[in-house]
Amino acid sequence: MKRLLAGFLCLLFLCIVGCGGSGSSSPTVSGTASQGSAIASGSPVILTDSTGKIARSAVGANGSYNVTVSGLTKPFFLNCSSLSGNHYYSFASDAGTTNINPFTHLSVQAVLGSTPITSVTPGQITTLSSSFLTAVSNLKTALAGLYPSSVTASTDFIAGNITIGDGVDKVFDSITIIPPNASGVFSIAVGSTPIINGTATTFTPTAAISTANSTIFPDVTISGQVTVGSTGLSGATVTLTGSGSTSTKTDTNGNFSFGYVQNGSYTLSASMAGYTMSANQAVSVTSTSVTGINFTATATPSNNVFTTAMISGKTYNYSDTQGNSGTPTFNANGNYTVSNGDSGTWNINSSGQLILVEASGGTDTLTLTANTGTVITASDLFTHSDGTHLTYTVTLTTVAASTTTFSQADLTGTWNFLNFATGPDVTSGNYYGWKSGNATVDSAGNVTINSALDSTGSTSTNINGAIKWSANSDGTINETGTASFDSSRLKMSSNKTIIIGVASNGADRLMRIAVKQNGTTFSSADFAGPIQFVGCDIDSGPDNDVTFMNGNITNGSATITSTVSPTGNTATVKAQLLPLISSTGVISTPNSCAILTPDKKLMFKVTTWGTNSYDLSVSSFQGQSFTQSDLAGNMTAFSIAGPASPLWQYITYNVSGSLATATSNLYSDGSTSLTGENVSGISISSSGLITASSNTTANGFMSYDKKLIVIDSQWDTNQFGLALMLK
Length: 727
Prior knowledge:
Strand order of the largest sheet: 21-23-24-25-26-27-28-29
Shape: globular
Structural class: mainly beta
Strand content: over 45%
Low-confidence stretches: 1-24, 425-431
Helix content: under 10%
Largest sheet: 8 strands, antiparallel, barrel
Mean pLDDT: 83
Oligomer: single chain
């Protein structure tokens, strides 16, 4: 360990290197990931470019995915890992539409062989570049006889607009792919009968393919109508489950139809917000179409209906006639948390009832009886896990949102700032480093750099253009101008003294921090001690690590007494004399810069430790007392991770008890999935130290003023992250 006060780090802030915000959209590789059904939302998609650089995304609704490839070098290898453990490969020669499915996977294996690909090599990408499209074309030709003329959904498995449950996706339900053996021979079978055999990129249909289409696409339908009175109900959802699962919408006359239905037993149900539907219907199919599956819809009185707008994103004070109380928050992702630590999922059924499925067991069915706009009254039928019932009355009273509001005037003034970039430059092999300085924001939001120092030793204040900041009432900040960063996300702390953010600058992934000069005067006496401190830091460079530390300051000398890191680094640093601090709260040396907050309890620091080796740290003085309730509420988190596959994350949480529920999310690669983003088992000690049972590598702390949480952790193999969270 080489950290001095190692603590007192930073969160990146102002832009000293202009990036030229052109406003044009970034190129992407996108499509549908399917396997006979949509691959589950949240399944990871990893894209590798021809130089070995990696970009990540995740599968969204209905199997859709989207990976930003700005700054990457075509062509691209794709690997989607379904949540069930299956891997599917694909290959894209350029940005645009490329699907991922068993046939794209087979085309890759036909070229490269059946050995699982854990880390694709540039040589393999070169081989795919010359042979993959040939394999795809030959497989399409071989499959052509499998589709009857009545199929209208896309059969183009590589670039078509795939319809889940129809066209080529329906084929995936009925086939078995036997991958290439040691001799490179493979086959596609329906049941146990091969319909296509192949070697390398050659695919040859067998005689059985001519009869297989009637097996996969039987001329059998299930149809019916949804009506209100004597009128068809347009736009109702009809769902088919059983031997197969799919759904459809009724047409303008309320009619619906499911095609190519396999033999088996099914259940059909209808739903639409604002209506109660007649009972579900059971249907048995034995090679003959079934008609007349009709549903009757009854409009639900609007004053007795829960709506999504009434519940989603809202927090209420709860009480019931059983004597229970709490403060539940209903998050937009369908989860809810309660101040007492309870949690579960919520939804509104087709009858307009609020359904709460409790994580501890049991289901609440709430029927609205009154709504004043601020107070909701409902009858609750609670069903225990053993099937017994209890009925009582529930009252939900709206909790007013935070009264802290922000204005442009809060931005006006002088700010000390730090920028820190993580990850190696894959083109030059250099590491990006850091920048620090001092800037003034005028009443119109124009940003002027007054002084600067970066990791190369440059003191230039030229930003190659203009930057302008505009404050929103919720504390978020819009950044515009010819020198603004790409995809910038900035937010001001509730005490209006700190700005934290993330941004991209080409291939850079930046953390940004600014601290306002509010007239507080600093001196070396502020570090006389004795002072206990804690800190977190992240290394960008050969060290490739994050570290949590404890230390003390005595007579102006700082000593790190213990450290914890995911890689096992436990080194300590002997006492080091702290440099002199300026009256505005800046500690600057030729190879480092630190800035302090006006309360003199929190420090952000950037440091150069050696060639291509840089460090960002955040440290807080101790002495405050904390309880679990200090974590409760909404927070906005800004994270950077690297050096492998550098990226940033901008995510919001609602914390209740020991659970942090993600309510919105954005990665620098464009992924917005909430899957896997919740954090459970969060605990804070009386001295403010934070851990989480769901990630044993996570260590952090809450700042003295309880406005900032800092966490470091391991994200993935050779990928480590630092998160700063504003409450």
